[in-house]
Design brief:
239 residues; 72% helix; 0% strand; mainly alpha
Length: 239
């Protein structure tokens, strides 16, 4: 054997290509998880848009139909989307929402956007909506109904959505326009938001949680009381 051949035989074969500390299989696993999460988010957004279309036409009577077209996992995805939209709208409204959390919004009356205040308000509103959903889930059996946690969150988020959008619209009216009776217009907008909040919550308790009409009349303010208590606790935690 020649010296050159002997030298070549002693050279070790090249190692596998790529980063030795991160195998290609691990990269593929990360990519698959990311793609799965993106697919779930896309499906949830599409389901939320379809449900929003039904609810836009008939927000009170349509909650049962909208819920019936979804399974448990899809209901949870729609609930998350609705809760995020409602919480963002409430946080941006800058405390215009009647009945609680005044001054916690990202847009303050003094002008300017404060991301820290906005993020804190967003968390508080999300926790409040979640508390209302848990309240529906726990209280439905007490009032003769029954529902899942996913459906309870769906009811709470669906009820909070028109309230949040009304608060955001009222805030924009107060900031953009300067006519003399704008306070009256803002109050009217918030009146619609509060009414839809109560009516949709009541309809969700009746048509989704199967609470009869007589008991739903008492269950509705009870769930709202749980939501306000949750908001107070969240406000104390993030104060």
């Amino acid at each position: 054997m020649s010296q050159n051949e002997n030298h070549q035989s002693q050279v070790p074969p090249p190692g596998p290509s790529g980063d030795p500390e991160r195998p290609s299989g691990q990269d593929n696993a990360y990519a698959k998880h990311a793609q799965a999460a993106a697919d779930k988010a896309k499906v949830a957004a599409q389901d939320a848009l379809a449900a929003a279309r039904r609810l836009f036409v008939n927000p009170v009577g349509g909650i049962g139909t909208a819920h019936g077209t979804l399974g448990d996992q899809r209901v949870l995805g729609v609930a998350i989307v609705f809760a995020l939209v409602a919480a963002i709208a409430l946080a941006l409204s800058g405390g215009v929402a009647a009945g609680g959390l005044a001054g916690l919004g990202g847009i303050r009356s003094g002008g300017g956007f404060h991301f820290g205040v906005f993020f804190r308000s967003l968390l508080i509103h999300l926790i409040t909506i979640g508390g209302a959903g848990v309240g529906v889930w726990l209280l439905a059996p007490v009032f003769g109904g029954r529902t899942s946690l996913q459906s309870g969150l769906f009811i709470a988020a669906t009820a909070a959505l028109p309230y949040g959008l009304a608060a955001l619209l009222a805030s924009l009216i107060g900031r953009i326009f300067s006519f003399d009776f704008r306070v009256t217009v803002i109050a009217l907008v918030m009146l619609f938001g509060v009414c839809y909040l109560i009516q949709v919550l009541n309809a969700g308790l009746r048509h989704v949680a199967d609470v009869d009409e007589k008991r739903a009349a008492l269950a509705t303010p009870t769930v709202l009381a749980v939501a306000l208590l949750t908001a107070w606790l969240a406000g104390r935690i993030f104060a």
